[in-house]
Description:
By secondary structure, the protein is of the alpha+beta class. It folds into two domains: 4-81, no CATH class; 84-171, no CATH class. The chain is built from four helices and six strands. Strand 5 (135-139) and strand 6 (146-149) form a beta hairpin. The longest helix has 53 residues, at 30-82. The two termini are 53 Å apart.
Amino acid sequence: MVDFTAIAGLVTSVRSAVEITKAMKDVHDANLIQTKVFELTREILATQGYAMEAQAAQAALLHRIRELEEEKTKLEAWTAEKSRYDLHEVSTGVYAYTLKPGMEQGQPFHMLCANCYENGKRAVLQATERLQARRRIHVCPQCKTDYAMENVPRPPPGPSRANTGYEEFKRR
């Protein structure tokens, strides 16, 4: 936040310095000139202090603006990425996010962890060698959640998924 106290102090100090300088113009007494020089020096130092406070406040604001812009960029990128996926029941009682038809962008079939997806992260589920009740265990590399899945049908490769069985997968 802008430090208005520093700015007000800066303005007041500059005004005082100007007034002292004007007063010195008409003074011919050496002791009085010396006193005015000390007053002027004090005001100049105060002005510098207020200017440095204002600069520090500005630097902090610029840093915060950069952080917010980076966060905004990340959120926009995640929103664009997120729009490529839909939630599906990929196995009985198991939900994961899969690519929407036509959104592959050269990527192979994959599933995203629903938990991580909801927390703004893209985590591709990885198949393991482990089985549980004859279901293959897939694990999320980020949150370490296990997903026990039956055979997950994969959509066929190619640009068009129409009438290829992928629609059946989507309905599950």
